[in-house]
């Protein structure tokens, strides 16, 4: 392949360069006609300059043509590379578009699943809240029922122990539940427990036991006009030796005791006790038992004033109709005084604050 580039097909041919005819010095000019006459003689330096100029132009044209050819080839290569890059970019763009569509589809599926999960989570939270609310409501209802039942038991028995036990159990259940909405209920129960412990309460069970013991002793109390039997007098002395003199002394004592029993001198402050017959003594004892029973029922019904009046009647009957010097009478009177001293008119403390807090929690506020 020639290094010189071929001229373009549309280029016009260069005009011929006139070459002057040089003649040798001293030779005559041939007269060949009009052409010879018109020829111009040029100096040799100018001719070589023109030749050099033509050669430089040719070289420059060749260099420019080679450079243009290289530029065209470079442009062709760049155009081919650009076309390839464009093809690759188009393929990458198509892949990217496909990936975008695929990603959009996946995003749509993920959004759908996320919405489903969010809906399920919302439903699950509502279900958990409903279950928690139902559990809390059941807990509040159970505690309220237990507290009201314990309050009724305390009113019937006159003791605060059932009420304290119910409040402590409710406090433990609320603590295990660990619900912030039940904190007010726990504080109210704590205040009620402190108030119940600080209150002065009648020991009703202990008083009932003492009243029952007093009722059992009524039948054994000696009345003021009771006669001491002779056998009791004879049994008071120790048995002596069975000698004639001892037997004679024993017989004399028995006879004297019989004689003394015919007439008995004693001091009775109340005349009604002297006229008391055995039948009236029976009804007297039963009447005292009825008064004690009424006092017992008054304590259970929280009617302290009525129970105190019945016990006062019993104390009056003991001092009026029974022998005050007898040991049994003194024991019964002392027991009766203990019951009267321990009886107080203080009412049982109520748990209204706890019940109000439970009602507020049940209402959901």
Structural features, described:
The protein folds into four domains: 38-109; 120-200 and 351-362, Up-down Bundle (Four Helix Bundle (Hemerythrin (Met), subunit A)), CATH 1.20.120; 202-225 and 276-345; 228-263. The protein has 365 residues and is an all-alpha fold. Helix content is 72%, strand content 0%. The protein is rod-shaped and about 220 Å long. The two termini are 104 Å apart. The longest helix is centred in the first third of the chain and has 114 residues, at 44-157. It has twelve helices and no strands. Helix 2 runs antiparallel to helix 3 (161-177) and helix 2 crosses helix 12 (352-362).
Please render the helix and strand layout as text.
Layout: H1 34-38, H2 44-157, H3 161-177, H4 183-198, H5 204-217, H6 230-236, H7 244-262, H8 271-274, H9 278-300, H10 304-321, H11 327-342, H12 352-362
Low-confidence stretches: 1-39, 228-241
Beta-strand segment tally? 0
Radius of gyration, CA atoms, in whole angstroms: 70 Å
Q: Which class do the helix and strand fractions yield?
A: mainly alpha
* Helical content (DSSP H or I, runs of 4+): over 70%
Shape: rod-shaped
Strand content: under 5%
| Helix/strand order | HHHHHHHHHHHH
CA(first)-CA(last) distance = 104 Å
Question: What is the total domain count?
Answer: 4
Biggest sheet, in brief? none
Instruction: Count helical runs.
Output: 12
């Amino acid at each position: 392949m020639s290094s010189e580039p071929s001229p373009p097909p549309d280029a016009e041919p260069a005009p011929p360069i006139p070459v002057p005819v040089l003649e040798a010095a001293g030779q005559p000019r041939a007269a060949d006609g009009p052409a010879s006459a018109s020829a111009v003689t040029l100096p040799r330096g100018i001719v070589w300059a023109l030749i050099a100029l033509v050669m430089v132009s040719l070289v420059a044209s060749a260099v420019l043509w080679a450079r243009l050819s290289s530029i065209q080839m470079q442009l062709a290569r760049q155009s081919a590379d650009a076309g390839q890059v464009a093809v690759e970019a188009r393929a990458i763009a198509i892949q990217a578009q496909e990936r975008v569509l695929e990603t959009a589809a996946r995003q749509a599926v993920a959004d759908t699943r996320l919405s489903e999960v969010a809906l399920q989570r919302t439903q699950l939270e509502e279900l958990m809240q409903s279950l928690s609310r139902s559990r809390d409501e059941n807990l509040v209802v159970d505690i309220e029922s237990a507290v009201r039942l314990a309050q009724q038991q305390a009113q019937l028995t006159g003791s605060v122990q059932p009420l304290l036990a119910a409040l402590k159990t409710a406090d433990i259940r609320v603590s295990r539940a660990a619900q912030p909405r039940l904190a007010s209920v726990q504080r109210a129960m704590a205040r009620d427990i402190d108030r119940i412990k600080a209150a002065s309460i009648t020991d009703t069970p202990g008083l009932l036991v003492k009243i029952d013991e007093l009722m059992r002793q009524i039948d054994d109390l000696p009345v003021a006009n009771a006669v001491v039997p002779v056998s009791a007098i004879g049994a008071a002395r120790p048995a002596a030796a069975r000698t004639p003199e001892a037997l004679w002394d024993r017989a004399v004592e028995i006879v004297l005791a019989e004689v003394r029993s015919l007439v008995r001198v004693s001091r009775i402050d109340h005349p009604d006790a002297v006229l008391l017959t055995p039948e009236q003594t029976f009804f007297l004892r039963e009447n005292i038992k009825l008064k004690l029973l009424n006092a017992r029922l008054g304590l259970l019904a929280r009617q302290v004033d009525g129970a105190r009046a019945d016990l006062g009647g019993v104390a009056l009957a003991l001092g009026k109709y029974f022998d005050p010097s007898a040991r049994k009478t003194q024991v019964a009177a002392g027991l009766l005084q203990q019951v009267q001293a321990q009886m107080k008119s203080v009412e049982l403390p109520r748990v209204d604050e706890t019940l109000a807090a439970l009602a507020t929690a049940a209402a959901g506020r």
